[in-house]
Amino acid sequence: MILPIYGYGQAVLKKVAEDISPDYPQLDELIANMWDTMYKASGVGLAAPQVGLSIRLFVVDTVQIMEEGKEEEGIKQVFINARKLEEAGDPWAYEEGCLSIPDIRGDVERPPQLRMRYLDEQFVEQEKVFTGVNARVIQHEYDHIEGKLFIEHLKPIKRKMIQRRLENIRKGQVQVDYSMKFLGR
Fold this sequence. Notes:
Layout: E1 5-6, H1 27-40, E2 45-47, E3 57-61, E4 76-88, E5 92-98, E6 101-110, E7 113-119, E8 125-131, H2 132-145, H3 156-161, H4 163-170, E9 180-181
Parallel strand pairs: 1-9
Antiparallel strand pairs: 2-3, 3-4, 4-7, 5-6, 7-8
């Protein structure tokens, strides 16, 4: 089932999300719905706060954006109760966007290496190091469960330039080809 994606301005996007346990109601269905929602919106990652749930859950599929022949370098994973353990390397800029903030993109600097501890969808603890685009997408989705948005990483001049567009998104005055939920609607 396709879920509505919560747009910029929704309070759930600014809250630090809560851990969940294996008995979280209908978790398998929620994860399946998040995959469906992410693909319908042409995303590479989706966090539970983006579908209105303040829980520490996100999904990532970078396989779909890898160059032909390098798909095995991508990841398709579920992250539950994730914790960032360490970031390393010189930050590099990369243009990011967000399904909750449509039509706005900007260069965000992030370290190229990330070590994470998380639970997979079977609630088996994992600890892995991710690099490059995989690390980037995970860092972006991790920010969501920490109540942060990519626009908070933009340079002040860029943030000032997008203020009117952000206000339009908050009001629901944006055209997208996926279901969204806006403040007051």
